[in-house]
Amino acid sequence: MIYDIDIAKQVAKSLLQINAIILQPNNPFKWAAGWNSPIYCDNRKTLSYPQIRTNIKQGLAAIVKNHYKGANVIAGVATAGIPHGALVAEELGLPFIYVRSKAKDHGKQNQIEGFFEEGQSVILVEDLISSGKSSLDSAQVLKDAGMNVKGIVSIFTYGFDAAAENFKNAECEYVSLCDYSTLLPIAKEQQYVEESDLTVLNKWRDNPAIWKK
Description:
Layout: H1 5-17, E1 21-23, E2 29-30, E3 36-37, E4 39-41, H2 50-66, E5 73-77, H3 81-92, E6 96-99, E7 112-113, E8 121-129, H4 133-144, E9 148-157, H5 161-169, E10 174-179, H6 180-189, H7 197-206
Parallel strand pairs: 5-6, 5-8, 8-9, 9-10
Antiparallel strand pairs: 1-4, 2-3, 6-7
């Protein structure tokens, strides 16, 4: 779900403005999963724009403070969630840790980097949620280490039914600043896409695995 519709609209405008999100329904991108996609999302670009970066940091911090009360620690999902997680932790004055996609094969072989204690409540910060698998894998790593995962926050989510099902099965909640459903009307209003593109863009989200195959 999204946290606040007005914030979601402003984030959508910002992501489109700096080309962090690009919509190409007639010239789709190819995802690593092999899917054709009319959208490309790279929220790392927001880090290069101080005002947008600050707005996102404050928005994510507001979710943690007002929706997930009582968090002791902020965690970032490697790699794109690390800088945004660190910014949120700084905004809230909380400790920060991050979760690797897999444990190191040298040294202490850590998968969680930073100091934490069993029983602490943690919020995971992610830049983007598609299927939710990487976020939920990181949440499980934290749970296995004895932490209480209160939820996951992200900048953007595609809003796939599969993601909702994955989070439900994992009994883990997530809240995003912006989502695909909010983005499309803004993209039309700002003339990034035509009215005729909206049907195609909505069909992709309904079944991305077979879209334009």
